[in-house]
Amino acid sequence: MLLGCKCGLVLRVIVMEPEFSDHSPLSVSLDDRQHKSVKPFKFFNCLTQYSEFKILVQQKWSRGITASTSPLVWQKLNALKMKMKLKQLNTKELLAINNKIAELRGKLKILQRQMEQSNDHQMLCEEEKSLKLELENGIELRRVL
């Protein structure tokens, strides 16, 4: 028979043959097994920048849960399944950022080809500067996420 607990300890009991006794001897062993630990949830402030973040939190936290302050927050986080939802949100936003970066790189490449062939460098230089700044911001945002 095996008995386990959340702390990772497992109690193993083996009922042995009584042989010459009228008692059934037991063999008891305590096994300390390491369970796969759950990775702690890390909250990144940049998640609050997403337009869907506030809506997601409001929907899940508006449910009526009664408990004292600390368990209340924990229960609401569990109700939100925040880790999974925020991971999905982060993946979606990161994909959008990657697409935007690819688009900006393409525009920059086209613009630089135009600059090689054009005499109107002033306007194209301003546009190039703007695109480079936008691209730099996108890359920095992706790095943070």
UniProtKB/TrEMBL annotation:
Any coiled-coil regions, as ranges: 94-121
Record keyword Coiled coil present: yes
Superkingdom per UniProt: Eukaryota
Keyword field: Coiled coil
Protein name: Uncharacterized protein
Species this chain originates from: Solanum pinnatisectum
